[in-house]
Sequence to fold (248 residues):
Amino acid sequence: MMKKLSLIVLLLLIPLTAFGADVVTPSLNITLPATNNPTTVAESIKLLVILTVLALAPSVLIMMTSFTRIIVVLAILRQALGTQQMPPNQILIGIALFLTIFIMTPQIKTIYYNAYVPLEKNEIGLEDAYYRAAKPLKEFMLKQTRQKDLALFLRIAHLKNPKSPQDLSMSIVIPAFIISELKTAFEIGFIIYIPFLIIDMIVSSILMSMGMMMLPPVMISLPFKLLIFVLADGWNLVVLSLFKSFVR
Fold:
């Protein structure tokens, strides 16, 4: 018995000993070689720019595209259905991501052909590529942004009204766009939430009239909400409404 107990204790101590030992991890160094060749310098700068863009890509996706409105509406829809974590967050984010790519396809093509391809061929510099890439995104954001929100950030920054919306800097357009997207998403979510709320109220009233106050109304209303949502082809209607909300 003592031998078995000693063996078990030894097996339990092995992981602790392994974690306590010095673990040698490989190091990763990114160095740029010294050179006087302008082509090599340009390639090194492009590499740094690409790494920076990849690091900022999630923020750009959320702040400057249709992703915010779509994910907020889908989250409100799930809350209205009362399905808790179904669909899971990963599925909602995936749906929002691919819908964003679909909606933003014209802007992506414009950026690719007007900014990336000339930059890759060394026909334009980084500054020109930045302005060419920012122009279609700014046009998209301005179409979805309310004038009131733009005026808010102009007033906060103590700036005068520009002659044209295109003269606004991205530091003004992006936060105004985000606020407008949140407001629009809540408006769409409110319209989606009302029918499911009515179903909950009807089921709750019926249960109270029958004296079944101890039975949670959600258990009865959830199947009816799912049935109505499926029969009405809810996903089709929600996606279509989201797409039409961006067409102006």
In short: The CA atoms of residues 206 and 212 lie 9 Å apart. The two ends are 80 Å apart (CA to CA). The first helix runs from residue 2 to 20.
